[in-house]
Amino acid sequence: MSDDTAKRAAEEEHSAFSHPPVEPDATAAYGDHPDQVVDFYAPKGRQGPSGVPLVVILHGGAWRAPYDRRHLTPFAGFLARQGFAVANVEYRRGSSIPAQGGTGPVAGRWPDTFDDVAAALDALPALVKEHLPGADPRRTVLTGHSAGGQLALWAASRHVLPEDSPWHAPYPTHLRGVVALAPIADFALSRELKVCNDAVVQLLGGDARFEERAAHTDPAALLPTGIATVLVQGRDDADVPYTVAEAYADAAAKAGEVVGLTLLEGVGHFPPIDPAADACAVVAEEIAQLAF
């Protein structure tokens, strides 16, 4: 990475994390663990008699404990101001103990991370009815950033899993589409590139379990989904290279499915979730194209 690229990446990250947290209108639990909660944001703009679309957002942070849903609350507030009802999902992540041989915390908790996302999505219709009466859960769009982008793509593919999988779910007829932002969407390439300091390998419990567990969690292995899907990615992303998104789109094409891929010039990892960045407006428009 050149000095100029590194400087711009640092500036983009600072901008994305400089916004004060936006408090939700309501918070509800979908389980007993403290991390099994969802924040709800009521729409601030357009609202019709039939309700507004629901946007479910999943935060990134390489599935690691230090990064929780709070850093995504400005993005949630931004979407609410665009007229969407928003559900910001928390889930269990890796411990704060450094990974073996590494200096950073472990990525993900197996199988808890996936258990939580599945449970949250299953609980949302009832929770939305109670806490977001202005929302129409029959018009749901999933979105997520980085590791959360992977979880959004995975959540939309649960009907592709074997029926005896604990995460299997029927085809989500209420789901209008997925907008994945800089997603860790192809596990094989992400492992090869050591994305986010080998986060995918840690998430799946090490190399010995990688192939077995990736078959049930790698978005690129769970295709086609039949769900409208768009990936939004910065070409200058140094955290999750855009080639990972391209690999997912290529895998979808080989499976007979067309996936939209919007590559943003001069954009790194964080602008898609930064309300101050033009990239965030692009994301809102992509969501609106699927939702309305």
UniProtKB/TrEMBL annotation:
GO terms for molecular function: hydrolase activity. It comes from Streptomyces polyasparticus. Keywords: Hydrolase. This is Alpha/beta hydrolase. InterPro entries: AB_hydrolase_fold, BD-FAE-like_dom, GDXG_lipolytic_enzyme. Residues 1-30 are annotated as: Disordered. Residues 1-16 have a biased composition (Basic and acidic residues). Pfam families: BD-FAE (PF20434). Residues 39-246 form the BD-FAE-like domain. The keyword Acyltransferase does not apply.
